[in-house]
Automatic annotation (TrEMBL):
Organism: Cytobacillus purgationiresistens
Classification via InterPro entries: AB_hydrolase_3 (IPR013094), AB_hydrolase_fold (IPR029058)
Domain Alpha/beta hydrolase fold-3: 29-60
UniProt cross-references to Pfam families, sorted A to Z: Abhydrolase_3 (PF07859)
Domain of life of the native organism: Bacteria
Protein name (Swiss-Prot/TrEMBL): Acetyl esterase/lipase
Length: 63
């Protein structure tokens, strides 16, 4: 998904839990930190999926 901001267009991804026990879910915002830990933003995908399923929350990943 691409969102228009006052600076530039920003890519974001949303991860939903596979099985949620409630309709309204908390949101966790994941800011990709560049080369601090992981070299490419795609490397955050497994972590975001895991977190969404384990914490039963929506993960919003800003790229």
């Amino acid at each position: 998904m691409v969102v228009e901001t006052s600076v530039q267009r920003t890519n974001l991804s949303l991860y939903y839990p596979l099985e949620a026990k409630q309709e309204k879910l908390p949101v966790y915002i994941n800011f990709h930190g560049g080369a601090f830990i992981m070299n490419e933003k795609e490397m955050d995908d497994p972590y975001c999926r895991f977190l969404a399923n384990q914490a039963e929350c929506v993960v919003l990943k800003l790229e």
